[in-house]
Amino acid sequence: xxxxxxxxxxxxxxxxxxxxxxxxxxxxxxxxxxxxxxxxxxxxxxxxxxxxxxxxxxxxxxxxxxxxxxxxxxxxxxx
Length: 79
Description:
Elements: H1 3-27, E1 30-31, H2 43-52, E2 56-59, E3 64-66, H3 68-76
Antiparallel strand pairs: 1-2, 2-3
């Protein structure tokens, strides 16, 4: 991969993260942080929880919701 494309990919990834974690999460009132499940949960439950965090997230009130900030943050940044 040429260096120009590597740099462009790094800038694109950074701008997607800024839009989804900073801008869109405030617009949709979502919490972009990842919460770890404690050792009281079994391995399978923790794997399923971590796999679904890109689709589902917590709102500012603590309820589960579709991760609109992540989905729209990647759509806002032009390729």
